[in-house]
Amino acid sequence: MCLAVPGRVMSLDTRDDTPMADVDFGGVRKEVCLQYTPDVQVGEYVVVHVGFAIQRLDEQSAIDTLANFEKLGILEEEFGDGFELAAKQAGLTQEAAS
Amino acid sequence: MLDPEPVSFDGWVCPMPLRDSPNIVMGHGGGGAMSAELVEHLFLPAYGDAADAELGDAAVIPVAGGRIAFSTDSYVVKPMFFPGGTIGDLAVNGTVNDLSMSGATPLALSTAFILEEGTPLSELGRVAEAVGAAARAARVRLVTGDTKVVDSGHGDAVFINTAGIGLVPDGVDIRPDRARPGDVVIVSGDIGVHGVAVMSCREGLEFGTAVESDSAPLSGLVAAMLDTGADILVLRDPTRGGVAASLNEIAKASKVGVSLVEGDLPIPQPVQDACGLLGLDPLYVANEGKLLAFVAPDDVEAVLSAMRAHEFGKSAAVIGTCVEEHPSMVVAKTRLGGTRVVDLPVGEQLPRIC
Amino acid sequence: MKYLDEFSNPDLAKRLLDQIHATTTRPWAIMEVCGGQTHSIIRHGIDQLLPDQIEMIHGPGCPVCVTPLEIIDKALAIAASPEVIFCSFGDMLRVPGSSQDLFRIKSEGGDVRVVYSPLDALKLARENPDRQVVFFGIGFETTAPANAMTVYQAKRLGIENFSLLVSHVLVPPAVAAIMESPTCRVQAFLAAGHVCSVMGTHEYPPLADKYEVPIVVTGFEPLDILEGIRRTILQLESGRHELENAYPRAVAADGNPAAMAMLGDVFEVTDRAWRGIGMIAQSGWKLSADYRHYDAEHRFDVASMHTDESSICRSGEVLQGLIKPHECEAFGRECTPRNPLGATMVSSEGACAAYYLYRRLELVEPAHA
Hints:
The structure holds 3 protein chains of 3 kinds.
Chain A: E1 5-15, E2 18-25, E3 28-33, E4 45-49, E5 52-56, H1 59-79, H2 82-97
Antiparallel strand pairs in A: 1-2, 1-4, 2-3, 4-5
Chain B: H1 33-47, E1 67-75, E2 81-82, E3 85-86, H2 87-100, E4 105-116, H3 121-138, E5 141-150, E6 158-168, E7 184-187, H4 193-199, H5 219-227, E8 232-236, H6 242-254, E9 257-261, H7 269-278, E10 292-295, H8 300-308, E11 317-323, E12 330-333, E13 339-341
Parallel strand pairs in B: 4-5, 9-12
Antiparallel strand pairs in B: 1-6, 2-3, 4-6, 7-10, 7-11, 8-10, 9-11, 12-13
Helix pairs in contact in B: 1-3, 2-3, 5-8
Chain C: H1 10-23, E1 28-34, H2 35-43, H3 46-49, E2 54-61, H4 63-66, H5 69-79, E3 84-88, H6 102-107, E4 111-114, H7 118-127, E5 132-139, H8 144-157, E6 162-169, H9 171-180, E7 188-192, H10 193-199, H11 204-211, E8 215-218, H12 222-237, E9 243-245, H13 257-266, E10 267-274, E11 278-287, H14 296-299, H15 315-319, H16 351-364
Helix pairs in contact in C: 1-12, 7-8, 8-13
């Protein structure tokens, strides 16, 4: 269910008193309704489903998630065990990654 | 939404007003003076030197001995004008490409128009102009034609049928059932381009994109491939249903499995992104200027380099191989290392929400 | 696309998979609730890369699949009216009602149109004031705000020739219904990320608690799904059952308050039938009293129509993970993607359609094994 993709807000507009935006999906442009993310600014990313931004995309979160995946590999090479890893993540991540 | 790029229409003028109407009327299909005027004042000037003077009921074409390829196709694309092309160039390139997929050198085409009453002559002019330009580019003659008009509401502006003949060179034997395990699958370039360009201006889906249709005649590319002396086993232009449909047809005809490597598919980023947005799979999206070729492993290098040297094969790539396993089926190895079956599409691919 | 392509990186996928393999010691049955996740799992072959002990059960989270036959028959009846322009998401066109589908209605002269966004349907209503424009408002919580916006705008702008055929369903009651089933085999859930983008995560901790199942809010790209599975397995192996959010870039705990406010205004919770599963109490939305005027069921007098589901189709058991698709007697015989009996065979996200492909591959593979 629920195909939703991230896109970058390029410009803001209003139609029928409704906030709209021109959103860029890597070169593909589509008009998107911002009724539910009215505070979004140009340059920010939104998650778009059937022409509506349903949520702001938290870029820092995306970067952190990917960074965690990167660390997983390194941790795994060092410790090779999921439970140990979970323990490391709980408290010792800094130390383990260094 | 972006306006579709108009075909090069500069300098085109209707040499004489077609009676009083700026639009197609029933009389244009009546076979009388108005029909003759339409040919004389609209089609012939638009076709230019690609057309034989009379576009008579039948054309007589001298050919040397050998084998003739014969093909026909009808074009009902909606919208008629889309980024990078029109129904007119599609109608020429489509039949030129169908002929080319048998290895034939296309010689001559017929063009038959079914026009809806009320269609603006200016639009028809743009389409006819595109037909002429495409025929010149593909070096085929437009030798005969026909025009019919249907009541308003009984057609959709312009439908075109083209039929064509070509000559198959000696020694060329290209058939969908010639693929064998071990043979290599080549695609001539980026896939999914035409379908995305047309979808971008289809009512209800409009989106902005720089993607333009890849509509192109492939006869020159095929000639270059044949010139290598390689035994080209199978050729197919993956139009409706995309690469997936064509590969399934070939796998079935040759009773081999086709194993694709998803990471090797040349998919331009804007096509990938448009498909991501609409929930479509680029493998199922139409192409109008690409071909799939099956060749023996020893011939791959020569054929690939000949293709890459040609303007319509610059980004040709190997995308898979024929295997003994899963005969008649196409299976793709995913980027993650899993596999998935690439099935024949049931019907038209529709945008999905889930 | 940025923030999309990075999440299918094969090298990182391998790291996540290695983790999952290293962590899994026992068999586990995990349900991915959402059809979009099912699609992704199959599209990327993720299920084949998991340890053999992990079984993915494809849940009921495909709105196309669970829309009851009766609503589809109502849609077909409305779409066949000459004054109607019937608008739908593309997914729904091929879904069969009792005797036909929207394609057939279209071929018989019905004005059926595919739209990308519900707002496109509203636009059609304004452009065609002499026609009745009906939008087929299906979907889960993700799609509901978009559909709600159409009637909100119609009311605000005085667009009287627009109405909504509503068949909205809700995820948490379905999760509860699955867990209440005496034959339930599900031990953990991947919750649907985009549903939570709208609704937040507050509904899930009580479910995780009550049924003692890990629930991990999960995204849709390959890395998201693998991360959801990894976190689920970590919980299962260590005996925990909590809510975790593995999709923080698109899901905030509080969801989208503006969207939820609109949903509270336009819709009210109602009992809904799920195709193949049956009636689930308080599991859907209907238009609230303020918007009843825009309810297509009333405008076109189809509210009293009643249709029974196919008696041989066992999609309900498939949706609950009780049987595998090929264990249904109709599978591959009376029921194929070309001639589907149940909606799980229709949608590309449907478990039966997915299995139809896999089983064929498995059938031919022994030949070279």
